[in-house]
Design brief:
- The protein is α+β, with helices and mostly antiparallel strands and about 325 residues long.
- It has one domain (about 1-325): DD-peptidase/beta-lactamase superfamily (Beta-lactamase, 3-Layer(aba) Sandwich), CATH 3.40.710.
- It has 11 helices and 12 strands.
- The chain has helices at about 1-5, 55-70, 95-100, 115-120, 130-140, 155-170, 170-180, 215-220, 225-230, 245-250, 315-325; strands spanning about 20-25, 25-30, 50, 200, 205, 220, 255, 260, 265-270, 275-280, 285-290, 295-305.
- Strands 2-1-12-11-10-9-8-7 form an 8-stranded antiparallel beta sheet, with helices on both faces. It has a two-stranded antiparallel ribbon with strand order 3-6.
- It holds the Pfam family Beta-lactamase.
Length: about 325
């Protein structure tokens, strides 16, 4: 299987480490770890933590499904039910939890006011100065568009995470750890910025990613081993304590051009197989995660370099995931 992931080594510039893990034919493998260029004092291995960027959103989607399964919230609940009175005066009842998770709530990609604060730290930490107060202000100003059309929104998933935390009466970090991370045995996954790999952008080291006002949209760190365990929990026979939630999170809900949208996950089909996938990026890391329940395969690819014009890491990881699906033998029912 090494030929599947070898092209990933050449897909990013300025990286010093890459970690790729896959599940195929009932076995887990770490195929690539280590340096991709110049020496780095931090060796990369299967337990090295990378910034996940928007792959974080898939964890928020699973948290939503878990809370639906427990009866804590309902998919059609208006999000303002879980916000302080008057916090979002222009969000109507059509802005539901499920629509936030499928990017169909009509919210813009970014909260109003974020770009102005982001410009001074555009190449390092554009979200650093946008905290909870900034999100609160953005909610008061937001006038959503017509719900129903898929429109990718960091703002929407950030709001979803805040609503779930409010519904449970817990900080999001504690809630996610209690409901998702510990049940799936993901000890290296969390919001803490240390320890983690040093990230690079155009060959220059970047500071740890900070996104204090929108953690549910992009603040998680994880390792190749943890991410592979996370993905295999979405495969038949591997769902464990979150079986009901996993079945719900991978169910298609909306169509967006050439793919479908589940709870956060994107889904494409080829003949008898499907691939659910998501990518993410910060200024210092790029991540891809994909899995196919019908083919019982999964692949995660992590690199300590942020995306630049011409980067092909995510596309090549996506292609490698499909090749893995194509090579898989469909398990026969017992």
């Amino acid at each position: 299987m090494r030929d599947l992931v070898e092209p990933l080594r050449d897909a990013v510039r300025g990286a010093t480490g890459i970690a790729v893990a896959l599940h195929h034919a009932g076995q887990d493998s770490i195929l690539v770890t280590g340096t991709t260029g110049r020496h780095d004092p931090q060796p990369v291995g299967g337990t090295t933590r990378f910034e996940l960027g928007s792959v974080t959103k898939t964890f928020t989607g699973l948290l939503l499904a878990q809370m639906i399964a427990r009866g804590d919230v309902g998919p059609a609940d208006p999000v303002d039910r879980y916000l302080p009175p008057g916090a979002a005066p222009r969000l109507g009842r059509e802005v539901t939890l499920e629509r936030l998770a499928t990017h169909t709530a009509g919210l813009p990609r970014l909260p109003p006011g974020l770009l102005l604060r982001a410009v001074p730290r555009w190449r390092t930490n554009p979200y650093r100065d946008f905290g909870p107060a900034g999100l609160d202000e953005a909610l008061r100003r937001t006038r959503p568009g017509t719900p129903g059309r898929v429109r990718y929104s960091n703002f929407g998933v950030a709001l979803l995470g805040q609503a779930l935390a409010n519904a449970a009466g817990q900080p999001l970090e504690d809630l996610l750890a209690e409901r998702v991370l510990r049940p799936l045995d993901l000890p290296g996954t969390g919001f803490a910025a240390s320890p983690q790999v040093t990230g690079y952008l155009r060959g220059r080291a970047r500071p740890p990613w900070q996104i204090p006002g929108m953690p549910a949209a992009g603040a998680l760190r994880s390792s190749a081993l943890d991410m592979l365990r996370y993905l295999t929990a979405h495969l038949p026979g591997g769902t464990g304590p979150l079986a009901t939630a996993v079945a719900d999170v991978i169910r298609p809900r909306e169509r967006a051009g050439d793919h479908e949208v589940c709870l956060v996950w994107n889904l494409r089909r080829r003949s008898e197989h499907e691939l659910l996938f998501h990518s993410g990026a910060t200024r210092g890391c790029t991540a891809f995660a994909g899995f196919s329940p019908s083919a019982a395969t999964a692949l995660v690819a992590l690199v300590n370099a942020g995306p630049v014009v011409g980067s092909t890491f995510v596309q090549r990881a996506y292609e490698a995931a499909w090749k893995l699906v194509d090579r898989a033998t469909v398990p026969q029912p017992r």
